[in-house]
Amino acid sequence: MLLRRIKREALKLVDGLELVDFGFALPYTWVLVGGENGKALGVAMTLPEEVQRYTNSISEPSLEAFIEKADSLNVIERTLGLATINAVSQYYIDLSDATNVDVLELLPEKAGKVALIGNMPPLARELRERGYALYVFERNPKLWDRETLSDTLEYHLLPEMDIVIASASCLVNGTVDMLIDRAENAELFVLTGPTGQLLPEFLSGTRVTHLASMKVVDIEKALLGLKLGSFRGFEKGNQKYVIPVP
Questions:
Q1: pTM assigned to the model
Q2: Is 164 domain-assigned?
Q3: Residues 113 and 33 reside in one and the same domain
Q4: Do 186 and 147 fall into the same domain?
Q5: Which of 45, 144, 182, 189 is the least buried, fewest Cβ under 10 Å from its Cβ?
Q6: What are the per-10-residue average pLDDT scores of the chain (246 residues)?
Q7: Residue 99 has what DSSP assignment?
């Protein structure tokens, strides 16, 4: 299980870091860490449609306690765990190999079949305008439109795809292993969105080729946006990047 592997690697990096603050919230759950080189903010998409009755098993919040829950069956614990792993990752990440190109610039002009995991309307619209054969999959029925496919079809159709662009929220809902396994013929597999703030080396040896995410450069501005439940307020404090997975 990929989350279990990521958890083990992240736990090796917490020495010298402290949990400064955290919040389980909409639109993103967030964790702020600090160390001798400053602070770093990590987030994970909150999926309210996945939340069931919750009994808190974390009595004393800490980086270790949260990360240990990254592969929990409880989605709230898993979300807090991933946000913590992302915060630790952002503290250490080296963006010298990163670019600020749009994720679309990674795609060749003729890409065959393209899968978009998670209905992201602006991205879907741009892909269609560029003439790609696009398949959009979405779990949440509230985000469906007439051209959206249920995520139940991913298992059957992903082996046919040449390109996969997946919302990194697949880490939160636990489908990332299936997506990677079934995208056996994809030449490009991109995890995109703020939830993809992982250290790229955590994904070495998988079919994931790139991470397209955000580095928080103005923590105070981004935190204010998160506390106010604002996508745009959070993103104003960020810098987008695309980084290859080694």
A1: 0.94
A2: yes
A3: no
A4: yes
A5: 144
A6: 96 98 95 97 93 80 97 94 98 94 88 94 92 94 88 97 97 96 97 97 97 96 92 86 96
A7: B
